[in-house]
Structure formats: C-alpha cells, structure tokens
Specification:
The chain has 143 residues and is α+β, with helices and mostly antiparallel strands. Helices cover 13% and strands 29% of the residues. The protein contains two helices and nine strands; from the N terminus they run βββββαββαββ. The protein has helices at residues 84-88, 110-122, and strands at 27-29, 35-38, 48-53, 61-64, 75-79, 95-100, 103-104, 128-135, 140-142. The chain has a four-stranded antiparallel beta sheet. A three-stranded mixed beta sheet has the order 1-2-9, with no helix packed on it. The longest helix has 13 residues, at 110-122. The protein starts with 26 loop residues before the first strand and ends with a strand.
Amino acid sequence: MGCMSPIPTHSQDDDFISSSPSPSPSILESSQSVEFVDIKQDRPAHSTVIQMVKTRPNLGIAVEGGAGTRQPLPKIIKIQPGGSAQASSDLRVGHVIVSVNGRDLRGCNHQQATRVIAEEFKSRRNQSLEFMVVDSNQYKILY
C-alpha cells in the first residue's frame, strides 16, 4: 500500500483479521495492559472513521509527521478555533490520520500528506470528509 492508494473497502461484517500465518496479531497486549495497533493493516484495529462536514472556509487542523520521520503518519497536534474540524467533527489532538476520503496516507511524506488533506478539503465533489484515524492517546501504534 503506497501513498494515496485507495484503501480496500470491506463490509461491516468483516472482522479485518489478517489471514497471514504471521504470529503477530494486529493488537498485542503487554504486561502493563497497553494495547498496540498495527497500522499496516488495510483497516487497523481500533481505527475509527470520523466524518467532518465542511462548515467553515478552513479545515483548522495542524499535523506533524509523514513517511521518513519519527511519526510516519500525520498526527493532529492542534485543532484551531473556528475551523471546520472544531465546528463539525470529532477529530481530536492525538488522532493519527490513516486516510482521508479513502486516500491512503501511509507512505506519504509530510508535504504529500498535507497536500492530500488540503485537496480533499478544497474539492467541491463532497460537502464532507471522512478521516480514518487511530487515537494515539489510547493506543500504542506500531508502524
């Protein structure tokens, strides 16, 4: 799966468990009860799809990270007051963005990832955006 590749869609009945013979499951529990999420799966465990309606002229998020950095996927570091993200979504600081409107951000460097997010926000095709995210405040993410 590369930068901006469409993420395969699954029915709601799919359990998203890999059929790989690999011994490492998508979620691992350590002795301290911290859950790990393997971000490499098509639909990572504990990922959530958050819909954001375009209610304002700006998106209003700041992100850090991208491929080639210590934070390989964009992570929301600020929700700006007055933006669409604050006004009409459940996006939160600490959410790691896996995809936007089905466009995969895995493998995208920071510039590519922010361009995809901006393009989807500016697009007139949809009045909303769908962010697939994993909350790094709740889970330890394995890249």
